[in-house]
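Entry 14. Ran structure prediction on the chain below.
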Amino acid sequence: MIMNRRTKRILSISLLVLGGMLMFFAPENIWIGAILFTLGVGVEIAGLVLGHRNSK
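Output, structure tokens:
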């Protein structure tokens, strides 16, 4: 687990941006778009969880 707060914050923000980009650029009429959108949501959730965990 990452203990450095600054590294965790940078990684969390990067994951949020990556997830947003995946959701934004997912095509609407192709089945791969649903997979990309779901992957984007998963990456965003991972970024949020990483950002909210307290380091001891």
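The two ends are 11 Å apart (CA to CA). Will compare against last week's run tomorrow.
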